[in-house]
Amino acid sequence: MSRRILEKKQLGPCIWEYLIEAPDIAKAARAGQFVIVRLHEKGERIPLTIVETEQAVGGVRLVVQEVGKTTCEMVAGFDAGDALLDFVGPLGEPSEIARYGVTVCIGGGVGIAPLYPIARELKAAGNRVIAVLGARSADCLFYEKEFADLCDAVHIVTDDGSRGESGFTSDVLGRLLDTGEKIDRVWAIGPPIMMKVCADVTRPHGIPTVVSLNPIMVDGTGMCGGCRVEVGGKTRFACVDGPEFDGHQVDFDGLMARLRFYTRSETRLLDEHELQPCTRKQEEAW
Amino acid sequence: MIKPRQTQMRQQRPYERIHNFDEVPLGYTEEEAVREANRCLQCQYPTCIDGCPVNVDIPRFVGQVARGDFAGAVATIRETNSLPAVCGRVCPQEDQCQGVCAMGRKFESVAIGRLERFCADWEAENGPCCPPVAADTSKRVAVIGSGPAGLTAASDLRRLGHTVTVFEALHVAGGVLVYGIPEFRLPKAIVSREVEALRAIGVTIELNEVIGRVITVDGLLERGFDAVFVGTGAGLPRFLGIPGEQLGGVYSANEFLTRTNLMRAYRFPDYDTPIRIGERVVTIGGGNVAMDAARTALRLGARESIVIYRRSVEELPARVEEVEHASEEGVFFHLLATPVRFLGEDHELSGVECVEMKLGEPDDSGRRRPIPIPGTEFRIETDTVVIAVGNEPHPLVPKTTPDLEVNRWGNIVADPKSGLTSKPGVFAGGDIVTGAATVIEAMGAGKRAATAIHAYVMGGTDVAPTD
User: In whole angstroms, what is the distance from residue A163 CA to residue A157 CA?
Assistant: First the structure.
């Protein structure tokens, strides 16, 4: 069954928000889960994390960044009213939401999107929620107001200092720890290197740190084994055991290497189709 | 006059076929089929029917082929077998019907599989022979998974007059027939033809539906399904648990074959899913899946394809025909060896270190246990390894159905004769119950479960296990 796009909105350079009509998935989905999308008959299957559901319209909200062929093609050619050929979910295990006490939710880049429902559920469960949102620059930052409305405190940080303070999310996390803020649990979602560094920051303090991994997947339903990650010395599968894991146990170097394995094929595919991912586009004003 | 030898089937020459994904054996002509069918002795007490897991009336259909009544032969097969074009190609007939064929005692058995394939292909060319569907029973059955077990159960249940919905997690129906078995062994057009035949008799197939996530087994029962058949098959691949398995370039056979078959990576960049292999591909394992991977590697452009198997040629679990085809195509077999670790540079595979093995006393499986010979370690330079040593049962249905009993390996516990599980109204069959087996065994399980489900929904009471 193909799924109709209800809304499409630009959040930043190369960052787009979609609302997809999928009432059954919207009903079942919980924070932390993802969907697999395939655009057309020749398309690949890519995982995208669910941001939010709109029960009134049976919608599933996704945030898409133009990084590979499929995401570039989606942004270039799929608008409200169009249909996605395949849309499968909700997949993966939901986030473990409980009343932990003080939680810090760290989102980097497009990782801010999947962090949002987790922060909301943590708040609803009675936690104090501190958000740390990081982006390359001010224009790449989104959901700032949504987090501000929800969280007990929000820290903004950009690589270039164009919004909030200058630096990285892990710097803010380190400072929160230094100031003696009692933190019971951390969620860190963003580029693997950010999650790795955040886990390194909390490790000496023994603060449980949850990360959400986005390895290369093919089927995404517990069959192919392509999304395997070493966690605590054991082979785990992001599609059915994850996508969230204990950040202190994840072999991030292995994960990053496996993410790079198809870089040349991806570049070739983008070139053949004359598509420009955000890494190549000049950060034009919009 | 008795013809001692089987009528050969034409096939693509090895040096041509390794450059394409087209089917290897090309099928019988009508004349060839009639000639082969006439070799059948038409035994008064045939053994072949019991040799078939779905009990096709083999002497009858072979007799019909011998008389040139191809439509009749198709109808005979379809009475009990809903996937003849598939079975005719991938069944291990030498261990089943042909293994017990009376001709085979003195001469070569009748080529029953090739005749079955002929009939199915004849049907495809001459219009489908739809089996009759009984009057509507108003009972609803959910079938989870559209592999061989699910498709067979769906077909039989629909023909008994039930309303059947098949739920498939992937974007194409067919399960292992589409993601696992390569195009050159089972063209995907044939699978889709069989699936269309199911739709034609009124089976609903819901793609992209992951049962356990969007709706659970309990949810299906609450939604008004009178019974559920679980045929979710194999799940995550087994790895070897040796150092270096995370290196880029180490594939599971599931991923390697799924990229190629389901996602058509061999047509990259026309299709979007890539597959990256080196000049030499090493496949670990000795089953049909390992043969499929090793032969796929050649077609993807590998110059060398090497199979490493820890036992000897006698123990190779793959069908003889598959091993022959692989050998003809130039696959090397390094038998009595096993990998001990993968070697890497910068997180990518650069080689595999192996050790030679010898065979000791028989183990639980009755096969002689392989034992490493110390000091015989050797290295193979390679940047692509495919691990084909089996799968775990698919995790999602057991994980999300708390009162469904599983064994210690995670397989659903089900009565072998009826497929009945520990949960009322829920039946299971195929690899999810037995672990890795064959297409036809899964079909047999789907068929037996369909019979039991029919009794259950019509009787309205629990079916007790039959033994």
Answer: 7
Q: Give the pLDDT score at A30.
A: 94
Q: Where does a domain end: A144, A177, A207?
A: A207
Burial readout B260-283 (b: 16 or more C-beta within 10 A, e: otherwise): bbbbbbbebbebbbbbbbbebbbb
pLDDT digits (tens, 9 = 90+) for A91-117: 999 999 999 999 999 999 999 999 999
What pLDDT score was predicted for residue A209? 97
Spatial separation of the C-alpha atoms in residues B58 and B50, rounded to whole Å: 10
- Residue A23 in any domain: the answer is yes
φ and ψ of B144, to 5 deg: -100, 115
CATH number at residue A185: 3.40.50.80
What pLDDT, in 10s, does the model give residues B235-261? 899 999 999 999 999 999 999 999 999
Co-location of A45 and A72 in the same domain? yes
Q: Which residues contact residue B68 at a Cβ distance below 8 angstroms, ignoring those fewer than 6 apart?
A: B30, B34
Q: Which helix (H) or strand (E) holds A81?
A: none
Nearest-Cα residue of chain B relative to residue A25? B214
Q: Which two tokens stand for residue A35?
A: 């969907």
pLDDT for residue B3: 87
Cβ B189 vs Cβ B161: under 8 Å: no
Q: Which of A25, A30, A224 to mutate to test the interface with B (most CBs of B within 10 A)?
A: A224
Q: What are phi and psi of A13, to 5 degrees?
A: -60, 115
Question: Which member of B179, B234, B273 has the closest CB to residue A44?
Answer: B273
A74 and A171 share a domain?
A: no
CB of B442 within 8 A of CB of B148? yes
Sheet strands (E) in B84-173: 140-144, 163-167
Query: What pLDDT, on the 0 to 100 scale, is given for residue A283?
Result: 44
Structure tokens at A113: 């999107």
Binary contact (A45, B263; C-beta < 8 A): yes
Q: Where are the alpha helices (DSSP H) in B288-402?
A: 288-299, 320-328, 396-400
Contact A246, A215 (CB under 8 A): no
Residue where a domain stops, chosen among A74, A91, A108: A91
Collapse the DSSP code of B304 into the 3-class scheme (helix H, G, I; strand E, B; otherwise coil) and give the result: strand
How much of chain B is in helix, strand and coil states, percent to nearest 5? Answer: 35, 20, 45
Q: Which of B144, B172, B204, B210 to mutate to test the interface with A (most CBs of A within 10 A)?
A: B210
Six-digit token pair at B353? 């270190």
Beta-carbon contacts of residue B311 (< 8 Å; ≥ 6 apart): B286, B335, B336, B357, B359, B367, B368, B370
- State the pLDDT at residue B466: 43
Which tokens hold the place of A153? Answer: 């405190």
Question: With a cut of 50, which residues of chain A have pLDDT below it?
Answer: 282-286
Cβ pair A218:B237 closer than 8 A = no
Of B258, B270, B348, the CB nearest to A224: B258
Contact B214 A1 (CB under 8 A): no
Q: Nearest CA of chain B to the CA of A142: how many Å?
A: 29
Q: Are B198 and B205 in contact (CB under 8 A)?
A: yes
Low-confidence ranges of chain B (pLDDT < 70): 129, 460-467
User: What is the reported pLDDT for B159?
Assistant: 93
A87 and A100 belong to one structural domain: no
